[in-house]
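Progress against Task 2.4 (sequence-to-structure conversion) is shown through the following example record, which the project officer requested during the mid-term review.
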Amino acid sequence: MKRYHTLTLKELLAQRVTSVLILLAILLSTMLTAVIGQSIGILSAMRQQQAIAIGGNRHVSFVQMDEEQLTVLENDPRLSFVGSSVVVGSAKLDNTLILGLSEFHEDVRAIYPSISAIKEGRLPEAPMEIALPEDVLGYLGFSGGLGDTISLSLSKALRHGVMTQSYDFTAAFTLVGIAKSNYLNYSAGVVNGIAGPGTAEMLLPKKYFYYNVDVRVTDKRVFQATIDDLVTALNVHELDTTYNVPYLEALGIRYSAGAADAADTSDSGFSLMLAAGILLGALLLLAAGLVIYNILKIAVTRRTAQYGVLRAIGADRSQLCFLVSAQVLLLCAVGIPLGLLLGTLSAKGILTAATGLLSPKIFLARDAAELNRLIVENSGGKVLFLLTSAGITLLFALIAALPAALYAARVTPTVAMAGSKVKIKRRSRKKKKIHNFEAFYARLNLKRSRGRTAITVLSLVMSITVFIALQGAVGLLDTAGDGVTEHYGDYSITNESAGFSPKEYQELRDNTQVEELTAMQFSLYDQGADGYPVGIGFGFPLQPAETFQVLGLNEAYWDKAFSTLPSEILEKLKSGKGCMVRNPLPLVFEGQEIPRTSIQTGDVITVAGQELEVLTTLNGYDTYLSVGNNGFVNGIQVVVNEHLYAALTGKTTYNWLLPDLAEGVDRKGFDDTVEALAGRIPGTLWLSYEDTDRQLAESFQQIQFLAWGLILFIALIGLLNIINTVYTNIHTRVAEIGMQRAIGMSAGSLFKVFLWEGAYYGLFAAGIGSLAGYICTIFVEAANTDTIQLVAIPVIPIAEAAILALGACLLATCIPLRRISKMSIVDSIEAVE
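Structure tokens generated for the chain above:
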């Protein structure tokens, strides 16, 4: 033998059971870390894609630049991209939405893909050509088609949107493209249209003609220094520099703290998934590391004499250390590639289930369908993340093998070859009657190697802890059946801005497919400088931070939402003989409650010149009223019937329609009816509660599957430890087992000893794991209630965990027991350790 390295493969083949157990641990840990790495890669790609959809493929924009400044930027070598555009003007679509029309001098599809996705026609190529989103055409009431002329009344401001210097004009454009509706920027109140090159120069006076310049910095490490230098050199006003914060954060670029003042930088969904993935990976790697450490330590201990011989014939410590480490490296060479493959194949499904825990909106997606589409689009192999996962798994495996390798290196030839002398320490103990010899003997065996026992129990404790904690966490996430009774219809159709006309309302109500139509009208009035609501008369001023709201409910809504009111009061409200008032919620600032309006039942209030008797009042969030699923806006809510609503507000439109279908109606056909309604009225959103309830149920099933998968992953690694420990106990006590059989112990009694050992592992782990799981349950409940307090003991999950742990330990113990049944008593006694 020329090299000691050839012993590595021989040792792996000689101890096949040990090798298989380590290989399984490496395979499982690599698979899950690959899933985590691939998921992080998918989330990172999704985050960048969505950030570009919101703010464009740019780092920073400089607004109101002249041609000389544009030239300087285009020639700056520190910038990898410089693109310019000119704002032609803006047009108000309604009270909340503005159309911004711009011409772009670069390929707009590469910079702003979300606003340039053409549904029909093409992008503008010549002056006075225009492309508008489909929903904007609806807002404008345009009924023509491609090639027709569309007239727009536009306004162009000079600086920062302040309308002190503005240029108002009307121009006729040729519609050459219809873009897909993009609702991502609705929250900012702006939708974008595209004009052909040269349009701004034809329509705007010279002083109103300026450039907006989008740039990307080449060296991201000096991003902020580069931007600061450009701002100083070009004398750019501080308000003329806008950072694309979502994209910068997605790329991990460090920027000025003040850049995010006006931006929504929330990335809680991505951060939460990343933190959960890292925590999960660390937990699994710890469990796998315990398996590798325990198995190798036992294997090295059994081969102490062999290592002593190697030292005697010339092997040095580094060679013995490498001999042990190389075994892990060979097993990693097999397990890691296979684990990466399995992890990559399962990453998409696991990530889809995991994202079902959270709202799609925090991933910048409109709904679960769009979120799943983004996952599919970005599910290509993320090589860098997979290599990182493989490297981390390899590092943890080597760290776990290090103690055993160092132990082998410290072996001295004389001690190892002479055999170790075991000193037996007997503690003083009282004489007790042994009621069950097998159980007593099993307890003695557990004390032989307390460290091995502790590691085995610890690996199983983690499984039980995770099982109990996830039972509580998954229970909190089970919303599949929640809120079904609160659906006041089979569909929800909302339009916060334009609303639905009485004609649309009546047509839907008269539809033979609709059994009953529930509807709400909503008007929100902000507080003016004098404290009174702007746009409607009210008898007294509002308190700070309060709004004024008027809501109109049709008869069906009154019956469904407020059926618990006394019948005489409900009838008065439905007939318009009074109103219901919800008082503002209490607000606390710096420990002091802010003064708030308080209206009592029986008071008379004046709204729009009409005196209304308050028939009942509401407080808190109970049965809060808002359009769709939007949150309650704090303020005074005056709730009346639909006829009184029209008299007070001057509006007859409805903002929320909830049709309840007749029995046996074809839902697909009604979906087409709702889609047609949404197509006629821009800004309309709708959903089927049947679809959402089904999605919730499916989502919860995915969550349960994911939770059980995690439990089984960790439990399997714990069982590997038990199998290895029992197998090692049998192997190292072959002569002892033969002697026991020779003096009369039956095979059944011997089996019971090892089964008792497995039972003790399960009982100890169940006790410790149940306590740890209960503590985790307290924190899970605290996350739901924001209060750390003792909660009811989860008896059923604890009992399930204990039974499963005990059964798994007994099953894992039975596997190595096959070796005992094949042992010859004579061969066992003559075996040389």
